[in-house]
Amino acid sequence: MKFTNLSLGIFAATAARLPGGARAFSSTAAATAAPEITAARALGGSDLIVSEACLGTMTWGVQNDRDDAFAQLEYARSKGCNFVDTAELYPVPLTAPEWKAGNTELILGDYLQTIGNAGRDELVIASKIAGFFPNSPVAAERAVPPTDPPPDCRLDRDSIRQATHASLRRLQTDRIDLMQIHWPDRYVPAFGLMNYQHEQKRNDAIPIRETAAALKELIEEGKIRYIGLSNESTYGVCEWVKACEELGIADKLASIQNSYSLLDRRFDSELAEAVDSYNIGLLPWSVLSGGLLSGKYRTGSKKSGIASDANSRFNKYPEYMTRWSPKTATEATLQAVEDYSQIGEEAGLTPSQLAIAFCRTRKFIADNGSVIVGATTVEQLKENMEPFDTPVELSEDILAKIDEVHMRCRDPCCVL
Q: Are 160 and 114 in contact (CB under 8 A)?
């Protein structure tokens, strides 16, 4: 499905102004200059019209420089992708010598300046505010010059406003279309952890309603348009819906960005029911499990897809994302990768294409979500965009084989 300029103009006209007359985006530019958006859909219950693929950016500033990033953006846009996801914390990993919080936003901001207001209006820009992070270099970079000593990242009103204003400055834009909470202020098991550890619960967590109220203020000021969650639990989603309903902004909660892939299907259960009930779209992150599902780290003659090189994430940073790094992942994880790769080969697909095709056809993504895909080279991005350019429908036989591997080894990359 592709939205034409005319249909985009209709959607744009309904959202061109926010309460108080604040500018949300130029409806005229969106209606006359926007290219066709591949497999366009409304994100969640919002009027944000996004492409099926969302361009991930977290390597920009460490593994990728400004020229690399610009080339990726140009290619993604040429394929009908209008949705770009970033974060104040990016790039990653934080252990890289050249890491500096906000550098990815700076690169994206430079690009937005080169394409002008009309080009900016064609894009949906999403960013994220970091959750609880004591003595955080991320929070330090919200000020110019950076705050020393580094303050904590929290989700109170002042922190939300400081983070948003810093992102707006770096992105060189007057609004962020989707502002997401990167992870909660309260304790939750996240980033591959499954079990709730009661002893880690903190009593000083910022109430969700306070965070939501701060975001409401920014919506009313025209600085953000919609709210998204990330690395959130079913309980958290329900509390966010409750808070937004009480504040009169239930229609502004559009999405959730959680881990989802062939190696991590935890979202299939209670969270799938919750987002379906509340019309919240999923933006799955690491659909290739940091690149492990691409097949490029398979050994010997089994290598498939685009070969890894010295700049590949797990070659350059073998201790990063240890649950997926081929040097530290469990044998069960590596075996599952091998099994999924073979299923893909039997279907005439590269491992990456199978992994992405599986995610893009899940109902909680296909109906009102978008698949985040990233790469360190344009060549990789081309392979990762192929399942959207030439959609692959997985047969019942292939899906049954995928489920067989999953039932034999459920979510092997997750730990207690």
A: no
If DSSP codes are grouped into helix, strand and coil, which group holds residue 259? strand
pLDDT value of residue 34? 46
Instruction: At 123, list the tokens.
Output: 């894009």
Segments of the chain scoring below 70 in pLDDT: 1-35, 300-306
Catalytic site includes residue 235:
no
CA distance 385 to 306: 14
Query: Rounded to the nearest 10 degrees, what angle do helices 208-220 and 157-171 cross at?
Result: 40
**Backbone dihedral region for residue 20 (phi beyond 0: left; psi -120 to 50: alpha; all else: beta):** left
Alpha helix stretches (DSSP H) within 289-413: 313-316, 331-346, 351-360, 363-366, 378-389, 396-408
What are the phi and psi torsion angles at 346 (to 5°)?
Answer: -65, -30
Residue that the structure tokens 């019309």 belong to: 279
Question: How far apart, in whole angstroms, are the C-alpha atoms of residue 98 and residue 81?
Answer: 29
Shortest CA distance to 280 belongs to which of 243, 250, 320? Answer: 250
CA-CA-CA-CA dihedral for 44, 50, 54, 57, to nearest 10:
-100
| Separation in Å, CA 368 to CA 53, 348, 355 | 12, 28, 19
Taken in order 348, 351, 353, 357, is the CA torsion positive or negative? positive
The two tokens of residue 415 are 């730990």
- List 75, 90, 196, 235, catalytic entry: 90
Distance (Å, whole) CA 294 – CA 65:
22
pLDDT tens per residue, range 271-302: 999 999 999 999 999 999 999 999 888 876 45
pTM for the model stands at 0.90
Give, in order, the Cα–Cα distances in Å from 245 to each of 253, 271, 277, 385, 391: 10, 19, 14, 37, 37
Cα 22 vs. chain centroid, distance in angstroms? 27
| CA–CA distances in Å: residue 216 to residues 128, 179, 240, 286, 296 | 16, 11, 12, 29, 44
The string of pLDDT tens digits covering residues 221-279 is: 999 999 999 999 999 999 999 999 999 999 999 999 999 999 999 999 999 999 999 99
pLDDT of residue 14: 34
